[in-house]
Design a protein that fits this description.
The chain is mainly beta. It has one helix spanning 26-29; strands at residues 5-7, 10-12, 18-23, 34-39, 46-51, 57-59, 67-72, 77-82, 91-97, 107-111. The strands form 2 sheets. It has a 6-stranded mixed sheet with strand order 2-10-9-4-5-6, with no helix packed on it. It has a 4-stranded antiparallel sheet with strand order 1-3-8-7, with no helix packed on it. The longest helix is centred in the N-terminal third of the chain and has 4 residues, at 26-29.
């Protein structure tokens, strides 16, 4: 059974940085695009960034220039480097295998002074 395991969330001050990780099984990872989503309290889940297995990326306008998605194919892991964090980035962050209903458990990111 495919599992996605996120880690790296936490409490950070505005302007700070965090790096999220999502580990999954290789057979799926090597053939699918991966994505990061987030859901803030009372809001719908929104797409943050995606990366294909060929390296093409997409970013939501709200994070463009601040967040970077990357993947380690050998380690079956996708990352989200988040810089210049803002309070409005506070949310539970989830990784997803694009085109599937497979989700991780989420990792909480809180940006607050």
């Amino acid at each position: 059974q495919v599992q996605l395991v996120e880690s790296g969330g936490g409490l950070v001050q505005p302007g700070g940085s965090l790096r999220l990780s999502c580990a999954t099984s290789g057979s799926i990872f090597n053939h699918n695009a991966m994505g990061w989503y987030r859901q803030a309290p009372g809001k719908v889940r929104e797409l943050v960034a995606t990366m294909t297995n060929g390296g093409s990326t997409y970013y939501a306008d709200s994070v463009k220039g601040r967040f970077t998605i990357s993947r380690d194919n050998a380690g079956n892991t996708v990352y989200l480097q988040m810089n210049s964090l803002k309070p409005e980035d506070t949310a539970v962050y989830y990784c997803n295998i694009i085109g599937t209903t497979l989700w991780g458990q989420g990792t909480q990111v809180t940006v607050s002074s």
